């Protein structure tokens, strides 16, 4: 029994060494041996690419904590908007909405207000710059652009 246990331990150690070796030689997100897939069936290059894309997606996707922090920020900004504008519609778009954002990605928000639809251009700008000023004062954004 001890011989079979030591053989299975050495096999699992060599397998884990392959994973580490592959990570050192290849991309950080690659936790399998793509050459092994290719050697099994060279006609399945698309399969190899598919698994590499899945591995990259798993490696790059936001953590639960990152998602929670962004959702808290969105809720705080919504609250500020509702305090400034009573009729506001708040829309999120871009990489945050799709879930494909990186840790330092921006947050794309569109604020729509039917009451401001017929106001002057200067009045609209004033309201948006006021909102931007409040967000800056609360240190909720490192960079903020009013468009």
What's the arrangement of secondary structure elements?
Blueprint: H1 2-25, H2 34-40, H3 45-60, H4 64-84, E1 89-93, H5 95-98, E2 108-112, H6 121-137
Antiparallel strand pairs: 1-2
Helix pairs in contact: 2-3, 4-6
Structure description:
It is built from 6 helices and 2 strands, in the order ααααβαβα. Helix 2 runs antiparallel to helix 3 and helix 4 (64-84) packs across helix 6 (121-137). By secondary structure, it is mainly alpha-helical. Strands 1-2 form a two-stranded antiparallel ribbon. 61% of the residues lie in helices and 7% in strands.
Poorly predicted runs of 5 or more residues: 1-24
Helical fraction: 55-70%
How many strands, which pairing sense, and closed or not: the largest β-sheet? 2 strands, antiparallel
CA(first)-CA(last) distance:
72 Å
Strand order of the largest sheet: 1-2
Key attributes of the depicted protein:
mainly alpha, 6 helices, 2 strands, 7% strand, disordered N terminus
Short description:
The protein is mostly helical. It has helices spanning 2-25, 34-40, 45-60, 64-84, 95-98, 121-137, and strands at 89-93, 108-112.
């Amino acid at each position: 029994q001890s011989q079979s246990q030591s053989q299975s331990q050495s096999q699992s150690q060599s397998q884990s060494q392959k994973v580490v070796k592959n990570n050192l030689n290849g991309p950080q997100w690659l936790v399998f041996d793509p050459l092994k897939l290719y050697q099994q069936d060279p006609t399945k290059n698309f399969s190899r690419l598919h698994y590499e894309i899945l591995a990259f997606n798993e490696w790059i996707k936001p953590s639960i904590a990152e998602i929670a922090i962004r959702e808290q920020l969105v809720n705080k900004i919504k609250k500020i908007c509702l305090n400034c504008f009573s009729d506001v519609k708040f829309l999120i778009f871009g990489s945050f909405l799709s879930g494909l954002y990186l840790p330092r990605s921006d947050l794309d928000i569109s604020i729509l207000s039917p009451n401001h639809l017929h106001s002057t251009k200067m009045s609209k700008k004033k309201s948006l710059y006021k909102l931007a000023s409040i967000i800056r004062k609360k240190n909720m954004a490192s960079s903020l652009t009013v468009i």
